[in-house]
């Protein structure tokens, strides 16, 4: 089960939907994140590699206000 910024992403959903479980990420932003990182948005979250999860976490940390920063 992928974990990004302290949130467990649902493994059986497509990546673009799983990213929406992060507070502050909506439908448009989740698709944009996938496009910027060249990740197939329809791929299941459980199929993401460690490097892809790290790239997503780094992008979110550097360029987006999510989770704790918004709460």
Structural category: mainly alpha
Report strand order across the widest sheet: 1-2
First-residue to last-residue Cα separation: 24 Å
Q: Quick one: overall form?
A: globular
Elements, N to C (H/E): EEHHH
Rounded average pLDDT: 89
What Rg do the Cα atoms give? Answer: 11 Å
What fraction strand? 5-15%
Q: Give helix % range.
A: 25-40%
Explain the overall architecture.
There is one protein chain. With 71 residues, the protein is mainly α. A hairpin with a 2-residue loop joins strand 1 and strand 2. It starts with a strand and ends in an 8-residue tail after the last helix.
Key terms for this structure?
mainly alpha; 6% strand; 3 helices; two-stranded antiparallel sheet; 71 residues; globular
Quick recap:
With 71 residues, this protein is mostly helical. 39% of the residues lie in helices and 6% in strands.
């Amino acid at each position: 089960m992928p974990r990004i910024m302290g949130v467990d992403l649902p493994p059986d959903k497509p990546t673009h939907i799983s990213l929406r479980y992060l507070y502050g990420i909506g439908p448009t932003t989740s698709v944009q994140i996938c496009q910027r990182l060249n990740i197939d948005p329809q791929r299941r979250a459980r199929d993401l590699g460690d490097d892809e999860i790290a790239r997503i976490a780094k992008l979110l940390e550097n360029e987006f206000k999510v989770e704790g920063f918004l709460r």
